[in-house]
Amino acid sequence: MSSVPFTVPSLAGEVSDAVVKVLDSGWITTGPQTGQFEQEFADYLGAAHVVALASCTTALELSLRALGLPPGSAVLTPSLTFCGAINAILHAGHRPVLVDVDEDTLVPSPRTVAAAAGRVDAAAMIVQNQGGYPVDVAALADAAGLDRARVIEDAAHGPGAARDGAPVGSESFAACFSFYATKNMPIGEGGAVASNDREFADRVRAMRLHGMSKDSWRRYLPGGSWRYDVKTVGLKANMTDVQAAIGRAQLAALPDWQRRRAEIVAAYDAALAGLPGLTLPQRDLAGITHAWHLYQVRVPDRDAVSAELEEAGVATSVHFIPAHQMTAYREILGADECASVPVTERISGELLSLPLYPGLSADQVDRVVSALTEALRTRG
User: Fold this and answer.
1) Which of 45, 215, 262, 378 is the most core-located residue (most Cβ within 10 A)?
2) Contact predicate 341/99, CB 8 Å
3) Which residues are catalytic?
4) In the chain, what is the greatest distance between 2 CA atoms, to the nearest angstrom?
């Protein structure tokens, strides 16, 4: 393992006790802990409803399914995204249409969304909070000519972010979160959909268990019945009570973790500012609270710089290899669609994510800075 790992999952001190209590309860699948986690996460976000799920990918897919779009609908999405978002569109039976990004923020802008929407009759859109930078959902919806109820916010990087004081997920028709092991609030696996629309949330809630009208908890409670119906086609995408118990403990620790992330970002900013060839992440824009899931810089000769940092004991990563560069998606999208995102194509070879997690020590930050400075100096 590198002296400075790219990421180390943060765990609240109460996690072990929380898991043991669930195991001792005799009920480990979706049940009371899941319901309490949903309410507590909704309160944290300021959202009316939260539905806990197996992953952010299933959250995106079920959200698309719950919109009831005609089969084969065009769904706008950044190419600079995780493959799970593209898979969600395809598994829901729709067609991805690529959107380019703004060079500074790494998220779509009204201009790039309008350009993509001008090529197709889009039925819906997925917008991503890249690295924790909160997108302006309302502006992007307007640029696409879509009602807000047709825009799904990919908030996998979003917990802790806000725009104009409103937490990501608090005002969305649908915001999809990830609790994967590398995320700001890691559970290991897991996801959620936040929404202020009860009917939509109820559709997602039913579809997370095959479309069944009652889950196991409601069937096996005293006075419950084994009888249920399937009124819509769904997936097996529920969160377990073991995961939810971990999530409740992690959620309580999240504010302190977010403060530590901001401290590390400030240290990186101060130490790296002015290095030749280095572009730092955009921040301090009016009304923006960055979640700082990632600290993404842009460097020349990215692959070689990454290899030099690895030799110096510093692990890095890349977010993301764009969808249009992936073999399977290139075959599905076609050459013209893959050529529609020139900014993404140009900057994707420069992006490098540095270690950023609450357990990163000051000494480790110094090692990252020293290794990156040396790697860039040899290219100056």
Assistant:
1) 45
2) yes
3) 183
4) 74
